[in-house]
Amino acid sequence: MDYPKGTSNLSNLQRCRSLRSNNGKPNAFGVSRLGSGSGKSRSRSRQMPEENCVIRNMTSSQKTSLIYSWKAIKPNANSLMRKIFLELEAVSPKVKQIFAKAAILDCFAKESSESKIGTIDEHVKLFTKFMDDVISNLDKETEVKCIIRKVGQSHVVLNNECSFQSNLWEHLGEIAMEKICHLDAIQKSRETCRAWRMLIAFVTDEVRSAFDEQVRIARRSSIDVQKDSTDDGDFCDKMKNIQVHDDEGPILKK
């Protein structure tokens, strides 16, 4: 894999332990390669002290670099997010299966239906908006964590319906980090590149932690259902309940 320009010492920087598995080795971006993650791996956010929160410890310079580089990326953000999801599909049959099922349901849905929320096209738009919301609230630690964790919590329905495992968040984070850190707007500055690695690792860790916690709550509450007993209509309804942040409130129901 090619290394980003100007990051020859990248491997010497602090590794993002939240994106590692116990057995996997980190790549040049500080994340484990596909297949090394495990659904049983513990999230770093449940182990780190509160004072080590990445957002809180970011310097003003790092936050500024994130804001300005995002402005440069944003016009083509949808194209970038599509590449990320397409690569995730390529390396994860489970993700490809989920998107394919959502696309089939969308074909039979009315134009006004919300069922298309589960499609890759909608995820591209929502991922762009999600990153925009995170970048816009870097000075609001509590709000940022809420935005991120709501995404992880709301995807727990896919654990029951589609056997969606938490290691998929690590794979998504790995791909996002690789794609974003290769952009010219990011490679211009070592500080900018490092800030993005820190942010993506933090987002991945928080969303996975929230997902894992919600899965445990669901299991303790004995509300798990067998995926074989779930029909397409129920799957469609569950996909509608996946939530992300919007401008008028903490979350937006898809």
UniProtKB/TrEMBL annotation:
GO MF annotation, one: metal ion binding
Family: Belongs to the globin family.
Record protein name field: Globin-like protein 9 (inferred by orthology to a C. elegans protein)
InterPro entries xrefs: Globin (IPR000971), Globin-like_OT (IPR050532), Globin-like_sf (IPR009050), Globin/Proto (IPR012292), Mb-like_M (IPR044399)
Domain Globin, first and last residues per copy: 57-212
Superkingdom of source: Eukaryota
Source organism phylogeny: Eukaryota, Metazoa, Ecdysozoa, Nematoda, Chromadorea
Region (Disordered): 20-50
